[in-house]
Design brief:
The complex is a heterodimer of chains A (about 150) and B (about 450). Chain A has about 150 residues and is mainly beta. In chain A, the strands form 2 sheets. In chain A, strands 1, 2, 3, 4, 7 and 8 form a 6-stranded antiparallel sheet that branches. In chain A, strands 6-5-9-10-11 form a 5-stranded antiparallel sheet, with no helix packed on it. Chain A is built from 1 helix and 11 strands, in the order αβββββββββββ. In chain A, strand 10 and strand 11 form a beta hairpin. Chain A has one helix at about 1-15, and strands spanning about 30-35, 40-45, 55-65, 70, 75-80, 85-90, 95-100, 100-105, 115-120, 125-135, 145-150. The model of chain A is unreliable at about 5-25 (pLDDT under 50). The longest helix of chain A has 16 residues, at about 1-15. Chain A has a single domain (about 25-150), classed as Macroglobulin (MG2) domain (Immunoglobulin-like), CATH 2.60.40. Chain B folds into 2 domains: about 1-60 and about 220-255, no CATH class; about 65-220 and about 270-425, Cytochrome Bc1 Complex, Chain D, domain 2, CATH 1.10.760.10. In chain B, about 40% of the residues lie in helices and about 0% in strands. Chain B has helices spanning about 1-30, 45-55, 65-70, 75-85, 100-105, 150-160, 165-175, 180-185, 195-215, 220-230, 245-255, 290-300, 320, 355-365, 385-395, 420-430; strands at about 35-40, 40, 275, 335. In chain B, strand 1 and strand 2 (about 40) form a beta hairpin. Classes of the chains: A mainly beta (about 150), B mainly alpha (about 450). The interface of A and B includes residues 3, 17, 56 and 111 of A.
Amino acid sequence: MNVLKALILLFIVFSRVNAEGVTQSQLPVSERFYSDRLDLQVEIRAVEHFMAINQLQHWNVSLMRLDGTPIVIESLTFDGGMPAHRHGLPTTPKVVVAESGAEIRGIRFSMPGVWRLVLGIETKDTGVILQFETDLRYGQAPSFISAEFREL
Amino acid sequence: MQSDQHKSILWLFTTVLLFLLILLVGIKEYSSSGDSDVAGETIWSHEELALLRSLALSTGNKPHSFEQQTNKFASSPAAAAFGHRLFFDTDLSRSGATACASCHHPDKAFTDGLVHPATHLQPAPRNTPTLVGAAHSPWQFWDGRSDSLWSQALEALESPLDHGMSRSEVIQLIKKKYRTDYEALFGMLPASDDSAAIDRAFTNVGKAIGAYIARLEPAPGRFDRYVAGLVGSLDSAAPVERLTRTEIAGLKLFISDEKGQCISCHNGPLFTNNEFKSINVPDFSGSDRGRLAGAEEVLRNAFNCLGEFSDSEEESCGDLIYIKQNDPELTAAFKVPTLRNLSFTAPYMHSGIFPRLADVLRYYNHPLQRAGDHLDIVPLDMFPHELEQLEAFLMTLDGGINVDLKWLKPPDNGRQQFSNSEVLRATQAGFQRPEAPQVVVISSQH
């Protein structure tokens, strides 16, 4: 029994030790945030340069029930910055909400480190604020540290 | 009894195994913290290696040329050759004595060694920046009031502080002196005084100069060769480059989140994130609004990426379309400059206030803090030896200019009044640090 435990431990530790930086092709192109309480999920996705440092990028934003039923976004706001460096975004992203979906254009992350981003999403009958923090590193997938939904 | 013994052997085995594991993890953590110096080799973690690779030239990093975006002549050798002649020609000025090269000396990585040019008599004059690698910035000037090399050149030609020529005077000179060069590239010079035609021809002159400056690529320095060796992208003939312990220590401070934090602004192969930041460097009037004004000006500039003279599609003008403006953070914010070739570009900062690199680093240790100011840096409180390490590291970025020597000399077609000896004399009259190198390091590439 103990031997088994030790072997499992061995396995866990080794998989951690061998965890390497991700290569370009493994970098994600989207991320989802879920709220059980509000029965909502939000997806952000970029065709190119998702969360890459110093690359201008455009995001598609979609809102869904937890079962995947899409919800039409009526209006969207976007803001953010780096709390540790006390500055905002280096660009003025523009939001486009159309029949085909909601888009945030012109996002840039000019520094590695922790960025706090805030999306304000309104639908026909409700409004929600999604705030999340992500740590950006060169050559690594972004690590999402926290996410929080609030009703408007 | 038998089974008890069996149990205790198992326990012993497990304990030894766990101990070994802890030891292994410990070694791994220690080495990835990068502090060890095993047999003269520094061990870097995967994350650090990814970061180093993002900073180095010649590791497959090809920095983007913003000039190519708006100037379709940017990679034309004929346009660059024409621009080269214009760059050194003093006839291209009202006084007949000023060329671009009067302030941008090739042997100082295209700076002038002065705090600011003597003719710049405005309340807050600025230091002459290097042109090496400038094509990789989406913004020109310390406040980014221009978004291409060609539109920047047009401003220098018209500004009374620089060349002081009118557009039609420039075209007159081109007709007189450079008709064949011009017409081979851009077609017929305008015959009339039609101002739209003059504007178009004037823009073409700027684009030729832009094509010349876009050639001035930084050459890899010792740092770049060191990283190329680490990530295995060095060609096998090249000798392995080593950095000294002091330089490595400086590099570690430079990229550290806690210690130097330099990397947050000085990143990418040109060591700039192309942003505008406020670090409260004193200037001579305290009235320089920096990027706050620069952002407004570039949007108004008729020669910007979205204007009729730009060769770009609207969607490639993202930097202008999504520009940050009207934000208090931009007050007295200046462009994060490249850190390549620093030993040629003293004095430093937008106001040229620091004669030596050591002064710059000392400033980062204790930046000017005033109530109500937005300051983008924190005091570093580093030890003197750490500042020396940082300086030693910065020197490993000096690679010179990656072009054939002929582009760094005045063109010898017998038509120029700006002779080589005049360039040198202008250099000697300027401010010089005692330890400033006198020759530019050139790595030729054909």
